[in-house]
Design a protein that fits this description.
It is a single chain. By secondary structure, the protein is mostly beta strands. It has a domain of about 70 residues. About 0% of the residues lie in helices and about 60% in strands. The chain contains no helices and 26 strands. The protein has a six-stranded antiparallel β-barrel. The radius of gyration is 19 Å and the shape is globular. The two termini are about 30 Å apart.
Amino acid sequence: MALGIAATLQTDIRIGGEVLGGIQSFDEATGQITKLTGASAIAAGKTGSLTTRGGADTGELTMDSGHGLATSMIIDVSWDGGARYGMLIVVDGDAVAIDGGAGDDLPEQDTDVVASEQRVIVREVDAADIALIAVRMSQAGHLEAREADGAANAGTLTTRTDANSGLATLSGGHGITTGMLVNVIWATGARYGMEATVDVNAVTLEAGLGDDLPDEATALVVCERGATIAGVSIEAEIPWQWNEQSGLANPLAGHIVGELRIGNRAEVANEVLVALLVNDIQ
């Protein structure tokens, strides 16, 4: 659930009844608080092991049965002492090929891991305008910031195979290429991190996160998904924050933030509260 705020935010932000650090007042700021609790909490991470290590950012997991992961999902992989986030996967039963992402190098072969599908919290904003980012999680997790999307390419969903796959026809000169991860946006929703397969102006779209694809003939835009800017590991019940009055460097400086993503490093459901305050621009 996302709650929009447009007000003067005074003194502190309280999450779970606790003050998130020594936050001062933020005059003329706007804000968004996203609360994921109860049925909307991040699902428990799925257990398995790294049975093949192809390199620092590629390998294969063998997951415990009933893991529920699916090809082209974007996941976080964590282990004792490290984590790699934003990895793309290909699933064949309990064998899950993993690739890419950012964070720590993958651990030694046969290391036990927890894999968690990422949840997307979106608010496009210039990092220079951010007054505060604050996060609290009931379990250990991760926050990832990604750049804003590339150029918007207009088109139509000409075939809807199911809720998370279909075929879009785009205008010429669109610049989308096979294997690219894209965000797909239409008037009433969006789906993020879909994998594109291109045949001239016909673009097959698969998997990703977000809303179910709309009806056939719906107008939409397809954009290249932004790259990872930064990631932060969040410990259970220990609030993390950055604010403009802290004197610390802005970890997102110089970027347009297109997505905030959260992942779960625990084997149980994770309740999350994220606060984002942005200075008003006159």
